[in-house]
Amino acid sequence: MSEALNAGKHVFCEWPLGNGSEEARKLAELARQKGVVAAIGTQMRYAPEVTYLKQLIADGYVGKVLSTTLIGAGGSWGNEITEDHYYLYVQASGATLQAIPLTHTLAGLTEVLGGIDQLSARTLTHFDHVKVIETGDLKKKNTPDQIMIHGTLQGGAALSVHYRGGITRGTNLLWEINGTEGDLQVTGENGHGQIVQLAIKGAKGEEKDMKTLLPPPIAYDGWPSFSGARNVAHLYAIIAEDVRTGSRKAPNFEDGVALHDLIDRVERFAQANKINNKPPSSE
Question: Which residue ranges does the record assign to the Gfo/Idh/MocA-like oxidoreductase N-terminal domain (predicted)?
Answer without folding.
Answer: 3-41
